[in-house]
Input
Amino acid sequence: MRRRLGVAFVLSMACAVLAACGSQGTANNAASPAEGGTDATPGDGAGADGDSARGDAGDAAAASEDAGDATAVSGDAGDAAVLGHDAGDASSAGEDAGDAGDSAAAERDAGDAGVAAHDAGGTAGDAGADAGCTVAAGSVIGVLTDPITTTPITPPNPPGITFTDTDGKLVDAHGGGIIKVCDTYYLHGEYFLSTTTDDDFNGFSMYSSNDLATWKNEGIILPQQASGQLGPNRKGERPHIIQCPATGEFVLYAHSADVTYEVDKEVVYATSPTVNGVYTFHGSLTNAGGAIAAHSDMSALTDGNDAYVVTESGWVYPLASDCHSWLSAQQFPAVNGNTGGSEAPTVFKAGSTYYWIGSAKTGWQANDDFYSTAPAMTGPWTYRGYVAPVGSLTWMTQSTWVMPIAGSKGTTYVYWGDHWQGQNTGDPGQHNYLTTYVFQPLTFTGTAISMPTYEVSWKLDIGAGTWSN
Output
């Protein structure tokens, strides 16, 4: 989670599995040898979502809280939030309070229309036979180009991609994940208003793409509730969607908390029969005894017939067969690396190896993300070091997702990191609707992963599962 930093401290997937799709699609693992340019990867597997990193430097000690927390909350269903502002919204950041309030109301009205459009519950990716999900090599190429190659940020890293959707508006879904259904990728994340700086929950949004470069707005999939855990004046972050292996239902997990991020924090969930429908909020994710997963940053993933929620500071929660509750809880401190506690957990599988990318608790400030590996989700986990060159601050990002793109010639693992707005200021995270996207191919050397250089422009062959400059 993100708590505002008083001192700027800058140190220091993917759950959608690429198997064939049925009538609803599938989020199970696919196995194939992997390639990335000239880099060889060990194989593909179940991906996992990343989590949100929202803790201040003084909260490092709070990681130890995670060791035994379990409390419960319930949430109420309610109204809709917003989606839809264009790149011109950047100017609204300087509006006065009165104008900001008017603009926010207008955005909420626009969001209501988006939610209404979803009430039919249809999904473009849910239809089609297995054969219709196959993409031929060379037929779909995503071109990912950072528009600016140098910035005044130290170190001078590219600032990431400002995606616009097919309507020409800013893509506004951050700190979340991507799930593949048939031949379509559904990116989902936190929706931020252009008229506020409090980062309170305003809904989770979704976009769809066939190439990870061109995005269609799917609207708000979980709106702000009338009251309760995801109601007004609450935090709601790190949404991650899985397709439950046993039921085929789509389940969205996230975390909620009060405005301090510290009180009433827990993992919550919502469900939908279709990947891009409006999700029904159910409240806290508990075990059979009613105990919650009392954490902030979290993620979720599937692995064959199994499903998991993972949280900050190395906690793993295996889920029940219906994915509506958790069965047990175990902490693996090794994934915290050299920190007192980690956040933004991003867990995925490649070949027979599981990977856990984590971030130090530095608020909205980027840091050098690190990773651990294990032969199973239940460990043992071994700390392996940093994902990108030390001092690059993970190319000025915080991890949230790794998406395996499995094709006929290999598998490319695409790292998604959030370049939270304002990294070149003393107080970043004030206008997160302007947050940009850093999509980079991971390099594999045996079971080691890295992003040794920043690829300013690269091409992703969806059908082949390979990438090139």
Notes: The two ends are 35 Å apart (CA to CA).
